[in-house]
Amino acid sequence: MAILEILKFPDPRLAQKSEPVKDFGPKLEKLCADMLETMYEAPGIGLAAPQVNVHKQIVVIDIDYESSEDEPPVLSNQNPRIFVNPKIVKKEGEILFKEGCLSIPGEYEEVLRAERVTVEFQDVHGKSHSLDAEGLLAVAVQHELDHLDGRLFIDRLSFVKSRSMKRRLKKEAAE
Ligand code: QAP
Ligand code: CO
Question: Which CATH architecture has domain 12-174?
């Protein structure tokens, strides 16, 4: 097991699109284990492979925290979920959720998402699954799948808010 380095905004590698996973095997299992360890150590509730500079369609999520309101979240019971080659096939309703991101530490803003999603994905062995998610899990799935398209939650704010936040973060990163 290993803790991986998490890329931080404005690293341009976060904007890269991720490729589908074709090889299922021990290398994929090791990467998923390392991603989970990295997420728990942060601590976070979701991590996408491109955040650790692996541009493959892999996401790990664990929303089972004592209080999801805590920022950063407090870890309680572990319920790791691994999504390989995930696709959202259905979206319903709307939810406004104050999101954060391990690649944008210390920043939290409300983002509008679907309240319920159905996600089709493969597990580490390549077996196909479908999951109906709602609330925090649905938000986490949408946030993490955005990473696979090179998109961050700050790209989903109003134009004015998004631009001013990116300018400030770029300025802070350059200091
Ligand atoms: C994505 O986010 C997410 O700023 C996962 O200083 C966000 O784990 C899923 C974190 C909202 C569902 C709802 C953020 C840790 C963790 C920070 C995270 C920080 C330390 C963010
Ligand atoms: Co994120």
Answer: Alpha-Beta Complex (3.90)
